[in-house]
Amino acid sequence: MESRGLEGVNDLIQRGYTVKIGDYISQGWQLFKKNAGGYIAFAIILVLLGVVLGKLNESASPLGTIISLIVTGPLYAGWYIVAFKQIRNRLPEFADFFQGFKNFLPFFLLNLISGILIGLGFVLLILPGIYLAVAYMFALPFAVAQRMDFWTAMEASRKLITKNWFSFFGFALVLFLMNVAGALLLGVGLLVSIPLSFCAIAAAYADIVGLGSDLLAGE
Fold it and tell me: In the predicted model, is pLDDT for residue 12 greater than 70?
């Protein structure tokens, strides 16, 4: 399935596509509004988890970092699992936010390896890190929607986004500024801006790649 997925990406690259930033923010907002309680509750859980793990790190124990590396990928997959269900007109349940643990390994490895590569890119020359941070924007959506292994998903995202990298950079910049604004609102705004960001990326993936015959993790 992975090879067919990459062939599909190559076909899409050849056909070309348009990045519609305003549309994705608007569609992401509609997704958020329809399930605002679930998104905010999940965001609160992640914030509280981050606080607990931060306290563990303050005690000079690596346990917080280790736990974070283990759970971040599957938990972040939960944003897309729920958003994709909404896009396909299916009613999500709150438990769906945690469905990423049912397909744990690819989400864990994707978060770990992409994080290492992006980090190395920033350490070496900064620009490679920026390039990869944007280029891997669709990596987790690919892994969620098409059950790709971590490397196939990363390569599919990198190849597809590189086609219109500067447009995606603009999209990422808008999302970043949106979260900065959320942080300035005493941090409470992040409970909206963070899930909205994931919903907007999900909307972009659905528009550019499509969800018609994809497989959702947890289904």
Answer: yes
CB of 108 closer than 8 Å to CB of 73: yes
Side-chain half-sphere CA neighbours of 219 within 13 A: 19
Whole-angstrom distance, CA of residue 123 vs CA of residue 126: 6
Closest to 146 in 3D by CA, of 155, 135, 161, 70? 155
Query: Which residue has better confidence, 189 or 219?
Result: 189
**What pLDDT is recorded for position 150?**
95
Establish if 219 belongs to a structural domain. Answer: no
pLDDT 10s digits, 116-173: 999 999 998 889 999 999 999 999 999 999 999 999 999 999 999 999 999 999 999 9
Per the structure, the count of domains in the chain is 1
Let me know: does 64 contact 55? Beta carbons within 8 Å. Answer: yes
Tracing tokens 């980090």 back to the chain, one arrives at: 119
Q: Is residue 78 in some structural domain?
A: yes
The reply to whether 95 falls in a domain is yes
At position 105, the amino acid (one-letter code) is L
| Amino acid of residue 88 | R
Provide the whole-model pTM: 0.92
CB 61 within 8 A of CB 95: no
